[in-house]
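ENTRY TYPE: paired fold submission
RECORD: A
CONTENT: sequence, then structure tokens
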Amino acid sequence: MHPYQHLWHTGNPIELPLGKIVCVGRNYAAHARELNNPVPDTPLLFMKPATAATALEQPVRLPQGRGDVHFETELAVLVDKPLTNATEADVRDAIVGYGLALDLTLRDVQSQLKAKGQPWERAKAFDGACPLSPFVPADAVDHGEPIRFTLDIDDHRQQTGTTADMLFPIVPLIAHMSEHFTLMPGDVILTGTPEGVGPLYPGQKLSLALGESMMVETKVV
């Protein structure tokens, strides 16, 4: 597995360390319903360690012998300042870039853990569980319009997400996270997946797009 390094979409390195990856579950109502999960009243938070991160341009390697591996395409947010009990103004000032991520999930393992009332880390935090794209600078994104992202599998549109459909919008969501644990420069926030998730299979071609700003292609092996 190649060492991961935050990159700008131009290919230049971002001089930030890779920290933790903080995730929110069920941030799109339609996705919660497609998995027969209740729609949450407050953000459902969990984490992936730095060892879960890989470069999205590298082949997606499926763990063997652990059941179905599902894709969940998400908007990723990179911060470059510490955030503790942050205001929304603090959060806006700390967001340095936007990218894309695959929140890879061992769905059979997750279902077993949920049935036992146990944490999800075995299903969400394995090595390679978070392919991350390069990042587009935050100041290059039009914050007056919803941010849109898509996933195509073998040239078929599989997922379409927009920040307008989030139950918990990005800035209030990150402020909420910072009330429970400090976010550090280089941390990445995954903001939830829209409906359309499903299993990955070797040989598939994945094309992910962040609006008109960036497209990344990879394959499943």
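RECORD: B
CONTENT: sequence, then structure tokens
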Amino acid sequence: MYEIDDPVACANCPLQACPGLRSLEERQLAYMQGFKDGEIGLERGDVLIDEGAAHDRLYTVLDGVLIRSRSLDDGRRQIVNFMFPGDLVGLQGAFDEPSSHAVAALIDARLCRFRRNDFVELISTHPRLGYDITWLAAKEETALEGHIVSLGQRSARERLAYLAVWLLDRAQATCLADDRNIVSLPITQAQIADMLGLSLVHTNRTLRQLEREGLVEWKSRTIHVPDLARAAEYAQFDYQADRCRPFI
């Protein structure tokens, strides 16, 4: 993890151009410029937040993708979610609690940094931005509900198809993928297994079956969903429901 020497001015924020993110108004951008506490960069595998650690900063993902996970004492890991540009990271720290999870970079990432204690002023000065923070927290809970349903009710093929469609949808909405339905993410089969509660053997077998059926082509560094509508219908995922998210 390292400090960015040339942080992006909020007026030139690249997130403003992403189709799945709601752009901030000029007065909000001006406020956020003074609210922002710099930027940091992460290389793939860098840990931003350690599980169980206290921290006094929150972050917005400006570029890249992060993994949120929890671990058991014996080393087993559950990947809880993936975090894309526009997502607010470390929200639990705003409520004076140590982090219940770890956050690490799946690919090289760049994040805007904010002081945790300043969020009281943000909410009182810009109630709309305060509402957006609440919305982001609620939307993450909705995403977690979808992942829980996968773990509890979906078959292995449905779990993998749902995850692929969800990842592609988030990537397209946040300028990390175009309309070719291909996203470049180096997600290993072990990480897929950690997310979906499958063994490595079952994960590998299911990926091959989905590829034979033309639903998902999941390689070591890319995910391709040839027919997004068909895959979304198969996984029972509404890939249009997650548009125009706010960001801070």
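NOTES ON RECORD B: Helices lie at 26-35, 119-125, 127-152, 156-173, 189-196, 200-212, 228-235. The radius of gyration is 18 Å.
STATUS: closed
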